[in-house]
Amino acid sequence: MSDLIVRRATVDDIPVLARLVEGFAKGHPAEGHVRSAAMLKDAFFGSQPIAHVLLAEKRATVVGFGAWRKAYDMFWSMYGGDGLGLYVIPSQRGLGVGLCIIAAICDDIREHGGQFLQASYDAVLSPLYERVAVGRRERTCHVSALAFQRLAAVAGGSAREIIRALPDKSLNYVPAASTSKQAE
């Protein structure tokens, strides 16, 4: 997967992002709902964007996306990110694309001053998410502390490199030295 890159989406990506959202909606109650490209553009690229979108490209073809928004944890008094969606086209699943997007999201959150990623997920994805993140019964999880910093630090690497560098789940309980970029 060395030919895979994860980059920030731009307004020019609206058509491909709209197609990805259609794929993401399959099986959801809103699957048949007509979605507006204008609303998608306003939500992600308008005057007050609600979230950040990253796209995964393989040989200049978009194969997946991840979206997150800024979050604040009152108990820990820190900013982070809420994962809003992660989707990889069916032909590219099982190749580490999702993991590369997650690492890039962690790096993007960190660049915006955040220190954790929290998300909800389907039971099918629990083996992937709960390998690194701390999962809860309601199928929500978080990656934080030193585990978050280490995952963010490997963003941009190949899926194989990221898998080899996955932090142990216990590092979610080890405070990171700082919130700046680190290469643990």
Notes on the protein architecture:
The protein is 32% helix and 26% strand. The chain has helices spanning 14-24, 37-45, 97-111, 126-132, 145-153, 159-165; strands at 4-8, 52-58, 61-73, 78-88, 116-120, 134-135, 140-144. Helix 3 (97-111) crosses helix 5.
Spatially, the strands of the biggest sheet line up as 1-2-3-4-5-7-6
- Helical segment tally? 6
C-alpha Rg, in Å? 16 Å
* Average pLDDT rating: 92
The helix-strand sequence is EHHEEEHEHEEHH
Largest sheet: 7 strands, mixed
Helical content class: 25-40%
- Whole-Å distance between the termini? 23 Å
Proportion of strand residues? 25-35%
Total strand count, please?
A: 7
Which of globular, elongated, flat, extended, rod-shaped describes the shape? globular
Structural classification: alpha+beta
Residue runs with pLDDT of under 50 for 5 or more positions: 179-184
Topology:
Elements: E1 4-8, H1 14-24, H2 37-45, E2 52-58, E3 61-73, E4 78-88, H3 97-111, E5 116-120, H4 126-132, E6 134-135, E7 140-144, H5 145-153, H6 159-165
Parallel strand pairs: 4-5
Antiparallel strand pairs: 1-2, 2-3, 3-4, 5-7, 6-7
Quick structural summary:
This protein has 184 residues and is of the alpha+beta class.
Descriptive tags:
7-stranded mixed sheet, single chain, 7 strands, alpha+beta, 184 residues
